[in-house]
């Protein structure tokens, strides 16, 4: 067993983990974060994406022991009841989800992309958006609604910046 310290959605905890234990399992079982979805469990679907020190990371391919001293954010830290993140709102309005199983992973993958484009003050073309989410699989939507959701939020952010 290995002693690690994890900061998860603002809560710091010390815990003891087996060296082979996956971050996805620790988040779901020790922190009750069921928004970390497991689809393929081998790095192909993106459902389990979380942020590790601010960067998207597949938690099914990450050992918890590798995360000692690091900060983890899951979809539970994004928005809240009645206070969805703009990207979550756009997924709803643009029909970017159906069953929703893939959605936490897409949201965690795309938030840094939206922030990057907003900081660069530019609207990416469709190819760039599809490339940004190419590690995430959705079996329901056909992806177009997700592309539209990303465009909508970046468009709103650019408009807001232009007015400021
Ligand atoms: S469950 Fe991690 S990539 Fe599919
Ligand atoms: S909404 Fe069902 S898998 Fe994406």
From TrEMBL:
It comes from the Bacteria. CDD domains: fer2. InterPro entries: 2Fe-2S-bd, 2Fe-2S-bd_dom_sf, 2Fe-2S_ferredoxin-like_sf, 2Fe-2S_ferredoxin-type, Beta-grasp_dom_sf, Diverse_Oxidoreductases. Coiled coil: none annotated. Residues 2-78 form the 2Fe-2S ferredoxin-type domain. Keywords: 2Fe-2S, Iron, Iron-sulfur, Metal-binding, Oxidoreductase. The keyword Iron applies. It holds the Pfam family Fer2. PANTHER family: OXIDOREDUCTASE WITH IRON-SULFUR SUBUNIT. This is (2Fe-2S)-binding protein. The lineage of its organism: Bacteria, Pseudomonadati, Pseudomonadota, Alphaproteobacteria, Hyphomicrobiales.
């Amino acid at each position: 067993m290995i002693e690690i310290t994890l900061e998860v959605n603002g809560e710091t905890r010390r815990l003891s983990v087996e060296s082979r234990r996956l971050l996805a399992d620790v988040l779901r079982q020790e922190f009750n974060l069921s928004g970390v979805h497991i689809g393929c469990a081998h790095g192909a679907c993106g459902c389990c994406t979380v942020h590790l020190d601010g960067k998207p990371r597949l938690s099914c391919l990450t050992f918890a022991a590798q995360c000692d001293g690091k900060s983890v954010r899951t979809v539970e830290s994004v928005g809240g009841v009645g206070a969805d993140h703009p990207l979550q709102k756009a997924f709803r309005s643009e029909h970017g989800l159906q069953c929703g199983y893939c959605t936490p992973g897409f949201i965690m993958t795309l938030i840094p992309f939206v922030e990057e484009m907003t900081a660069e003050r530019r609207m990416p073309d469709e190819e760039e958006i599809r490339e940004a989410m190419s590690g995430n699989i959705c079996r329901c939507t056909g992806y177009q609604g997700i592309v539209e959701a990303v465009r909508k939020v970046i468009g709103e952010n650019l408009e807001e910046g232009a007015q400021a």
